[in-house]
Amino acid sequence: ILDAVKTTYSNFKSNFVKRLSAEVPIASSPITTRWRQSQTRDLAGDSFEEEHSTTYLPEASGSVLKIMPEKETLILGSYKEPLKTPIKGNFETNNSALHFCKAPHALDRGWNENIASKGQKCLNQLFSTQKVSQWVSGKMQLCEQSQCVWKGCRDEVRDESFHLRRFNGINYSILQPEVKFHLTGLRNDYYLNILDWNFQNLVAIALGASVYIWNGENHNKIENIDLTLNCNYVSSVSWIKEGTCLAVGTSEGEVQLWDVVTKKRLRNMLGHLSVVGALSWNHYILSSGSRLGRVYHHDVRAAQHHVGTVHHQQAVCALKWSPDGRLLSSGCSDGLLTIWPSDLGAKAHVQPLKVIPQPTAVKAVDWCPWQSAVLAVGGGMKDGRLHILDINTGQTTQTPSMNSQICSLIWLPKTKEIASGQGIPKNDVTVWACPGLARSGGFFGHGGRVLHLALSPDQTRVFSAAADGTACVWDCCESFSPSGSSSFLTSK
Q1: Considering the chain, what percentage of its residues have pLDDT values greater than 90?
Q2: Residue, of 94 and 287, whose pLDDT is higher
Q3: Which phi and psi angles does 416 have, rounded to 5°?
Q4: I want to staple 106 with a disulfide (CB 3.0 to 4.6 A). Which of 18, 53, 102, 122 is the partner?
Q5: Out of 18-32, 99-113, 156-170, least confident range
Q6: pLDDT at 269 over 60
Q7: CA distances from 115 to 99, 118, 405, 411 (A)
Q8: Quick one: average pLDDT of 204-217?
Q9: Which CATH number fits domain 15-138+192-353: 3.40.50.2300, 3.60.10.10, 2.40.128.630, 3.40.1190.20?
């Protein structure tokens, strides 16, 4: 009798996963994708599946909008859950829903369903074990100035860099931030979009696996959405324009809708198999983009919410609907800026209106509030320029290279200017006067790249969040003034 072969548990686990991988295709991504995730979610999730196929069009032709028919969509009624997510049951809970989440070239028909369920349960347990060690608890607190014990704030003397610096001899008054925050759990990830400020003056910022909601008027914390039992981290947030519904994208590919007034989760829309790094609303159409290059369009009013899909070659890191809702811009890590029409369901295949190559990844993007066809785009490290594009005429204006990565940007409608957040070496917020894009001012004080910017509903304050764990609210309205008009940047 042959002696039994001895093996370690780690080798056994590795071999087991490889065997399953050989039978069932898994999305190719450097990010944990929560393969076939619906059975590990609560039954409120409306699921469709992110394709694994990588048959893309050539880069020159851009991307194609493909309207996907609804297939194998699981709708099990509405569900509401308190802000503090309750502890889930064990992984056997949703094994009955396994067949609703097939991958392309799905499970061999000869497979015994019971074997498949047991195998998937084991994989889910492995993924859960890997996830626990990666959780980062988020925290957001006001800086108490001289009494602050936060590292870097212990000196009573304020750093003079917390000022509005002057350019071209313009005599700007010294400006301190209205308020400063210290952040724990803010991810230093260029490809995420985790800050938004809505018309009800509520600020949402994702820190680790939680979303903190703050009152933008009195800077009091209102609530936090805790998703530590659902994901490694929150990767994107976006407020609906018509109310207090907050869309939350996660590292596990979920898109959740939360009502911050009732403190309930309204919906959980599945389908993505990778990090959802970008979200954008167009009335009741929510667009979500993932690192596998998919953009899904959801009609949040419908039971079968999936109304369209865009395929990109690389990660989607920017999504913005124009103010009039007629155009959608999508930016990718491969440097393609794509402009789409709004008739998502008009045809089976909708061609993009424009595909505009950029020198670097397209992440910092924002539409002009007073000219719906004008788009501002920030260049990455290899570019370092701010570009203003007129989609209708093709006219372009750009700044000289700043030799710095532009991580974020917003328009300042009251003064007809643009604010852009940069990385090293200055880690500042620069304000540009339109139309000539001359520097008119800037906010200094962050010790890391300024990853996120948001504008208050009254358009007078700017919220900046940086990779060093600091956030500031700046009163910009009184300090900057209009600098003229332009042939394609005039107020209407």
Answers
A1: 47
A2: 287
A3: 55, 55
A4: 102
A5: 99-113
A6: yes
A7: 13, 5, 50, 55
A8: 94
A9: 2.40.128.630
33 pLDDT more than 70: no
Phi, psi of 255 (to 5 degrees): -125, 110
Q: Which two tokens stand for residue 284?
A: 């009741």
Q: Specify which residues 255 forms β-bridges with.
A: 249, 269
Smallest Cα–Cα separation from 356: which of 372, 341, 334?
A: 334
Q: Cα separation of 74 and 447, whole Å?
A: 47
Question: If you classify domain 140-184+364-492 with CATH, what class do you get?
Answer: mainly beta
Burial class of residue 61, CB neighbours in 10 A (0-12, 13-18, 19+) = exposed
pLDDT above 90 (res 116): no
Q: Do domains 15-138+192-353 and 140-184+364-492 have the same CATH topology?
A: no
Average pLDDT of the chain? Answer: 74
- In this predicted structure, what is the pLDDT of residue 411? 96
The pLDDT of residue 20 is: 55
* CA atoms of 220 and 377, how far apart (whole Å): 33
CA distances 196 to 52, 55, 203, 205, 332, Å, are 31, 34, 6, 7, 20
Q: Which residue type does 419 have?
A: A
Parse the chain into domains and list their residue ranges.
Answer: 15-138+192-353, 140-184+364-492
